[in-house]
């Protein structure tokens, strides 16, 4: 299906909605289905990580992965309830997306179905606890995240009640940044033209999709009404990772076959390919982001990895650089990590269990 002649809007970016009030720590029975099972970390393990952070004196580099967002209802990749483990799903690659119109049609149709879920996730207690640690200078800025869900930004906005920008920063995938979070792989909330570089907010593109695909829009309204997109949080796990960490959703072939997507307003129908402002597999991290991440790794006094297996080299190399300088590395997550062999501390626990306790030890205690 060729892209439609209708062009994407360049309206000003709408303000981000304030997330709902944070909930306290919850028992396993009430956690989202996406959260993997794990034994709580021992007090001595928490104390050891807290001591490492204190000794770093505000220079503890934090690197976050998909395990940070499971308690917000977004599945991770590699845990027993993750997208890879449940369905054998593989994400879109940069090469496939750019290769054919059919692959872009498939991607945007599935993204259209998944965006209402991803865009309405609220930060968890883990996100809020990390924001508190950063506000009190207990960890290094920027926090580096591999996630594309913008929940770190929402947590900071929630904790501070007003989101203050630091002028002149050009991080977060090349977009205007705030100096507090470095998005290693970009964010789903922005769409970029691969020809001219023009950026559009994802909400605007969602409106274009609805206008171009009225039948799909009606189906979407019905899906939202029935909360079918929230089956990833179902206690029985009936549909497991229905919505993947990148917002992808399984759809029947007939739902994708006639789907239409717009082109860049500046470039026109045939040349202005719109792509989410994320680093797909097979693509390279934005040079500005790569330099900022390397600088953080080269100047930190400790590294705390949260909810990441470090399967991507863009994150693993940061840990290795710090380790080569003799800096301690602590890992928090339920599964194996590619840095297990060099870690000083390894807590096989949920990030949502560990971070609130670290906050209390380091900030309060």
TrEMBL record:
<dbReference type="InterPro" id="IPR050134">
    <property type="entry name" value="NAD-dep_sirtuin_deacylases"/>
</dbReference>
<keyword id="KW-0479">Metal-binding</keyword>
<dbReference type="InterPro" id="IPR026591">
    <property type="entry name" value="Sirtuin_cat_small_dom_sf"/>
</dbReference>
<protein>
    <submittedName>
        <fullName>NAD-dependent protein deacetylase srt2</fullName>
    </submittedName>
</protein>
<feature type="binding site">
    <location>
        <position position="264"/>
    </location>
    <ligand>
        <name>Zn(2+)</name>
    </ligand>
</feature>
<dbReference type="GO" id="GO:0046872">
    <property type="term" value="F:metal ion binding"/>
</dbReference>
<dbReference type="InterPro" id="IPR029035">
    <property type="entry name" value="DHS-like_NAD/FAD-binding_dom"/>
</dbReference>
<dbReference type="GO" id="GO:0017136">
    <property type="term" value="F:histone deacetylase activity, NAD-dependent"/>
</dbReference>
<keyword id="KW-0520">NAD</keyword>
<dbReference type="InterPro" id="IPR026590">
    <property type="entry name" value="Ssirtuin_cat_dom"/>
</dbReference>
<dbReference type="GO" id="GO:0070403">
    <property type="term" value="F:NAD+ binding"/>
</dbReference>
<feature type="binding site">
    <location>
        <position position="193"/>
    </location>
    <ligand>
        <name>Zn(2+)</name>
    </ligand>
</feature>
<dbReference type="InterPro" id="IPR003000">
    <property type="entry name" value="Sirtuin"/>
</dbReference>
<feature type="binding site">
    <location>
        <position position="196"/>
    </location>
    <ligand>
        <name>Zn(2+)</name>
    </ligand>
</feature>
<keyword id="KW-0808">Transferase</keyword>
<feature type="active site" description="Proton acceptor">
    <location>
        <position position="185"/>
    </location>
</feature>
<feature type="domain" description="Deacetylase sirtuin-type">
    <location>
        <begin position="42"/>
        <end position="365"/>
    </location>
</feature>
<feature type="binding site">
    <location>
        <position position="267"/>
    </location>
    <ligand>
        <name>Zn(2+)</name>
    </ligand>
</feature>
<dbReference type="Pfam" id="PF02146">
    <property type="entry name" value="SIR2"/>
</dbReference>
<feature type="compositionally biased region" description="Polar residues">
    <location>
        <begin position="1"/>
        <end position="10"/>
    </location>
</feature>
<keyword id="KW-0862">Zinc</keyword>
<feature type="region of interest" description="Disordered">
    <location>
        <begin position="1"/>
        <end position="24"/>
    </location>
</feature>
């Amino acid at each position: 299906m060729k892209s439609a002649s209708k062009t994407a809007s360049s309206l000003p970016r709408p303000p981000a909605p304030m997330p709902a009030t944070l909930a306290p720590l919850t028992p396993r029975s009430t956690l989202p289905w996406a959260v993997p099972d794990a034994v709580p970390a021992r007090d001595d393990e928490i104390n050891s990580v807290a001591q490492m952070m204190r000794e770093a004196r505000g220079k503890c580099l934090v690197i976050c992965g998909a395990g940070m967002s499971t308690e917000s209802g977004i599945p991770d990749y590699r845990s027993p309830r993750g997208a890879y483990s449940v369905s054998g799903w593989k994400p879109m690659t940069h090469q496939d997306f750019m290769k054919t119109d059919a692959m872009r049609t498939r991607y945007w149709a599935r993204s259209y179905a998944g965006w209402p879920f991803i865009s309405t996730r609220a930060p968890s207690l883990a996100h809020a606890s990390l924001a508190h640690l950063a506000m009190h200078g207990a960890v290094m800025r920027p926090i580096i995240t591999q996630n594309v869900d913008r929940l770190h930004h929402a947590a900071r906005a929630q904790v501070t009640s007003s989101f203050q920008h630091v002028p002149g920063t050009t991080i977060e995938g090349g977009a205007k940044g705030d100096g507090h979070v470095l998005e290693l792989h970009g964010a789903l909330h922005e769409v970029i033209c691969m020809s001219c570089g023009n950026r559009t907010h994802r909400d605007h593109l969602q409106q274009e999709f609805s206008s171009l695909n009225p039948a799909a829009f009606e189906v979407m309204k019905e899906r939202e009404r029935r909360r079918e997109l929230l089956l990833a949080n179902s206690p029985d796990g009936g549909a497991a990772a229905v919505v993947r960490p990148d917002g992808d959703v399984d759809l029947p072939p007939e739902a994708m076959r006639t789907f239409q997507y717009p082109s860049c307003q500046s470039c026109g129908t045939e040349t202005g390919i719109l792509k989410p402002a994320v680093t797909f597999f097979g693509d390279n991290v934005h040079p500005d982001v790569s330099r900022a991440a390397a600088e953080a790794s080269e100047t930190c006094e400790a590294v705390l990895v949260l909810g990441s297996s470090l399967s991507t080299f863009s994150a693993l190399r940061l840990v290795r650089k710090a380790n080569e300088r003799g800096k301690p590395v602590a890992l928090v997550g339920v599964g194996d990590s590619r840095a297990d062999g060099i870690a000083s501390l390894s807590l096989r626990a949920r990030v949502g269990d560990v971070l609130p306790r670290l906050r209390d030890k380091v900030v309060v205690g």
